[in-house]
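Handout, section B. The chain below has 142 residues.
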Amino acid sequence: MTLAIPLQRKVNALGVLLVLVAVTWVVSVGEAGPPPVKMVVTATAYNSVHGQGQGDDHALAAWGDRLEPGMQAIAVSRDLIPLGLGHNAEVQIEGLPGVWLVKDKMNRRWKHKIDIYMGEDVQAAREWGKRKVTITFAAPEA
């Protein structure tokens, strides 16, 4: 005994399947977003100790965040903010593990630069020195 499926039903089933595949593809492409941004910047390091930063509270960042030793935080030059490095943006830094958060911004005189927060470890900041690194972060939403 053979079960004959009418041609119209086969066409309808194929059409539904194609629509489901197309919708799945569109949704997955829509969620992907733009590729991450990679750029080379100058990286220095800073601490929350007397003599570094402005004002009396050396642990208070420009956006009002309180920096604490152990945090993976960075300051960015203001020209990088419109490129996607605004407050709390997640950044990967070549040569350093994990994800770093933008918690501070630098004086307007600095361009294309990040400053890596190293708590109260002045020696670690000195050893870091000044170097070029590649950073990776999400592109800003259009």
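Note. The helical segments are 7-32, 122-128. Compare this with the example in section A.
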